[in-house]
Every structure is written in structure tokens, then in C-alpha cells.
Amino acid sequence: MTLFLHYSVLSFFTLGMTVFFTGYPICSPMLVYVVYLGLDADFVPGLVLILIAGFVLDGLSGGVLGVYLFSFLWIFCMIRWLGGFLRATSPFFPFLAVLAGILLENLFTILSLASRTHGEGLFSDAFRFVALQVITAIIICPLLLTLFRKMQGFLFRQTRSKSTLSDFFSGRPM
Amino acid sequence: MFSRRFILFSVFFVLLSATLISLVLSGKHPRPVAQGAGSLVLTLVGPLQHGATKMTQWAGSLWRIYFDSVRQARENDFLRKELALAREKENEYLELALANERLRSFLNFREGEDREVLVAEIVGKDPSPWFKTFIVNRGRRDGVRPGLPVVVPDGIVGQVVEVAGRYAKVLLITDRMSGVDSLVQRTRARGVVKGSGASFCSFSYALRRYDIAEGDVVVSSGLDGIYPKGLRIGWVDGVIRSDDGIFQDVRIQPFVDFERIEEVMILLLTDEEDVDDMESQEEPLP
């Protein structure tokens, strides 16, 4: 995808998360996008894009600066690193990466909140949020990843990346 | 016996005579003659005429119905468009009326306030479920600075925590990191309204000996240096006095419906006003 398209997707998700579907404990589509960048994008443009995404979301959020930024950065680096010696084409790999992202995002939030508030009800909320985010990730993650790859294949006629939902679940390389 | 010419002349004269006699007689007595053959013709032809007339009328009406249908279809289309436009207008007027109502309540509140008030529109909300913040379309250029209280006529919304040129971030009182020094209006019992991260708040540090009951209104005390004294926050939704500890657990339901507000007011307090509010301390009544 061109840089313009990446920025359009970033803007679209940012608007979606701050204007239309705000504050719902669902799997963040931006996280899936970060996983997609980690899997398919080149390192430097991908890194720049996830830094922008993290910075924008941190700026719009009421939390401390770095919750989104560092969780995205960790996930991106983890995918690049693990992709070097693990079977990154496995259908569960991106899903596990999204799960790890959800856990990291919530962990960073809890750490930042615990140091600034009394922390009453933090863990019950964390459990509820993580559970809901994982459930929604089961639906959102394959859908969005397939959509991103389809879009990429359509725009650049990459026959290799003709992935479908059944590919995702059957374990065929996408 | 008779020649052909003779027969022709005879027939001619008979017919002429009959014609003349008939005309003369019918001119003197028209009815009796007509009642015979005329009535028979009428009886025989009348129904046919009637049928033909009906057929003509039916054909005519069919033609008219067709044209009427076409005209009505056009009219229908036109009226549908008119109706859609009218509905759109009605919706627009309804929105205007609602906005007018909101702004009127803002104006009434503003008239009651001796401070300068800045109306701002909410343009975005927090992307994380953990935090409760709004982005409003007023910033440093409008005189907004961190720490200014944000209210609506129903009560306190929160405070400004970050300011950019044209936009500012508002921390809601329901956020975990929010705290408002408050009083129970009826008994002047003092505590801190803290956000829970959900739609309600808690009234912390309220001593067990304080008289707090469900339905009591909680207002700001003005002692935190952010919110002026007497601004409405919420009402007591539940009180739990456990056997141990020195504080009671009080749950507050904010007056403001944070999911539905579209505009807010930023109170542009001066530093002197902040100091005045800090000085006006009040002792809680047991």
C-alpha cells in the first residue's frame, strides 16, 4: 500500500475510535493494523507508521503518554523478531500477536493508573476489558487482516496474497 | 297487362301521396302516429343506444382515468418529494429547537454566573475504555488553560487538563484520576467525589458520623482550587456504613449524562477568583 493509503487507514481508525465507537472495550482495530504492518510492511515505514498511530492515540487519550505508543512498538518489534525464526505464516500467529497486544495495552494502562490512583476495581475492570477485547478480537482480527491483504493484493496485483477467511482458519499461508 | 312505365309511375304517385298524407296528418296529430312505429323503434334501438353511450362514456372515462393516473403519479412523486423535504425541514427545526433549548439553558446559567463563560462543542472522545475524556473545540487562543472547570447547566462535567491552540482535553469527573472536593448540600458533610471509570462516582473520605442519605445532593465545596463553590455534581445513590473503618462508602450518580451532552461551558476563572474560592472554607456539620 502506498503511504497515502496507510495514512488514510490510520485517520479512519483514529476517527472511528474517537468519534463513532468511543470508549467501548472492544479490540482496537489499530492494534490489528499494527500486527498487519509488523507482518507485511517494510521495517522503517512500518515503524514510522506505528509510532504515528501510537502517538496520535496517546495524544487523544486521557492516559499517560506512551500506553498506546509502547504497546504498539513492542508488538511490532516482537512480530519482526519472532517472524525471523517462528512460522509466521501460521493463522494463529497474528491472532496471538493481537492477544499479546491487548494484554500489553491493558498492562501498561494498569501500571500507569496504579501509580496515580488507589487502584480500586482496577483488576476487575481489567479482567472485563481483556475478556471483551479477546472475544471481539476473534471476529475482528481475521476480518481486518484479510481485508488489508485483499486490499493490498487488489491494489498491487499481488497474486501471492490471495488470502481468504478460510485460509486464515485452515492454516494455509496467506 | 300493365306496361313497365305505368307501374313505375303508379308507385311514384302512391309514395308521393303517402308522404304528403303522412306529413299532413302527423303535423295535425303528432303523438298518435309516433306512438306506434316510434315507440317500437325506441324500444328496440334505445337499449343499443344506451349501451353505445355507456360504452363511449366508459371509453372516455378509461381515457380520463389513464390521464388522471399519469397526472396523479406525477403529483404523487412531487408530493413525496415535498413531504421528504418537509420532513427534512421538520427534523432540521427539531434539531434547531433542541439546540435552542440547550443554548437557552446555557444562557440562563450564564446569566446566573458572574464569571466569564465560554461555550465549547465536544468534537471527540477518549479512544480507551480506561479513561474518560472529551476533546472540545476551544483552546489556548480562546483563553482556555489547564485547570479550568467545565460545566453544563445540569452540573460539573470536569476540568481542562491539556490545551492546544484551538482544542482542549477535558478530564471528566467520572475518570479514575478525577477528584472534586465536595459537600453534601443538606448536611454540609465534606468529602471528595472521585471517578470510578464507570458512569458513577464515589464520595470518598466521608466520615461515618456524617449524616448522608440516599437522594442527597452533592455540590462542589470550592476548596480544591479548581471548581467554584456550589456547583452541582450529583445525588447520593447508595450509602454503605461498614462496621470497621472510619469512612463510609457513598456512591454518587452524576447529574450530567456524559453520553448525551454535545456542548459544554468552560468557566474562565481568573487566578484571583481561584484564591477567593480557596479562602472560603466551611466546616462540615456532623
UniProtKB/TrEMBL annotation, chain A:
Protein keywords: Membrane, Transmembrane, Transmembrane helix
TM helices/strands, residue ranges: 6-26, 33-57, 63-83, 95-114, 126-148
Protein name from the UniProt record: Rod shape-determining protein MreD
UniProtKB/TrEMBL annotation, chain B:
Source organism of this protein record: Desulfobotulus alkaliphilus
Domain Rod shape-determining protein MreC beta-barrel core as annotated: residue spans: 122-267
Protein's job: Involved in formation and maintenance of cell shape.
GO biological process assignments: regulation of cell shape
Family of the protein in this entry: Belongs to the MreC family.
Gene3D superfamilies xrefs: Rod shape-determining protein MreC, domain 1 (2.40.10.340), Rod shape-determining protein MreC, domain 2 (2.40.10.350)
Protein name: Cell shape-determining protein MreC
Keywords attached to this entry: Cell shape
